[in-house]
Amino acid sequence: MSTADPIQITSLIDDAKCFELIRQYRWADGVCCTGCSSKLIVRNGHDDTQPCRQRYLCKDCGVRFDDLTDTVFAGHHQPLRMWVLCLYLMGLNLSNSQIAQELGLNQSDVQMMTSQLREGLTVKAPEIKLSGIVEADEVYVVAGHKGNPEAVKKKAGRGGVEDSRARVGVVPLKKKSRRS
Ligand SMILES: [Zn+2]
User: Fold this and answer.
1) How many CB atoms are located within 10 Å of the residue 63 CB?
2) Contact at 8 Å (CB) between 25 and 125?
3) How far is the CA of 62 from the centre of ligand 1 (A)?
4) Are residues 91 and 57 in the same domain?
5) Rounded distance, CA 19 to CA 28, Å?
C-alpha cells in the first residue's frame, strides 16, 4: 500500500455546489433583474465556459445577467470554488500565504481575492461574516482641455467652469445603502 496523497481541499468541492450556494443566497427571494429589479425573469441558458452558471433574461427591460453579475466573483479567471474556499479559509483567520498554500494559488492572486472579498460580496456568503456592499460615491471626471484653453473659456462664458466637469454617478451594486 502506498501512502495516500495529501488531501486537496479544492478537489473536494465542485463548482456546481458553489453555484447552487450562491443562487440560494443571492436569489433567496427569487431572481431579480440587476438592471431594473424586476422579478419577471426567465432562464436563458448557461455560461459558455462555466456550465453551472445560470443566465437570465429580464422580460421587462431586456437585460441579460447571470448568477455572478455584479458580484466580486464575476470577471475573474478563478473558478467560483476558489473564491468560496478562500472565503471559508479567511473565516478561519488564515493568512494570505496560508490560503495560497491551501488552494495552490500564488500569493498575489490570493492577496487580490481577499482584499476584494473584504470590500464586499454584494451577495451574502454563508458562515462568513463578510457580507457587504461595494459602493462608491460620485466620481468626478475632469474633461481634458489640454492645449485647447479656448474651449474652456467658451464654456465658462456660457455655463461656468462646472461645465467642464462631467459628473458621473457610480451606481451602487445594491439599491439599499448601508450608510443611512
Ligand atoms: Zn430588468
Assistant:
1) 15
2) yes
3) 6
4) no
5) 13
Rounded Cα gap, residues 6 and 126, in angstroms: 27
Say yes or no: 90 and 114 in one domain: yes
Record the pTM. Answer: 0.59
Q: Which residue has the higher pLDDT, 163 or 85?
A: 85
Q: Number of structural domains, the chain?
A: 3
Spacing, Cα 125 to ligand 1 middle (Å)? 24
Compute the distance between CA of residue 12 and CA of residue 33 in angstroms, rounded to an integer: 32
Could you read off the pLDDT of 83-124 as tens digits, one per residue?
Answer: 999 999 999 999 999 999 999 999 999 999 999 998 877 654
Report CA(25)–ligand 1 centroid distance (Å).
Answer: 20
Q: How far is the CA of 57 from the centre of ligand 1 (A)?
A: 8
| Residue 160, domain extent | 138-170
**Sign of the CA dihedral running 116, 14, 33, 59:** positive
What's 35's domain CATH number?
Answer: 2.20.25
Residue 133: inside a domain, yes or no? no
For residue 70, the CA-to-ligand 1 centroid distance in Å is 14
CATH of residue 95's domain is 1.10.10
Please tell me the distance between residue 23's alpha carbon and the centre of ligand 1 in angstroms: 18
Q: In 4-143, which ranges are continuous DSSP H helix?
A: 15-26, 80-91, 96-103, 107-119
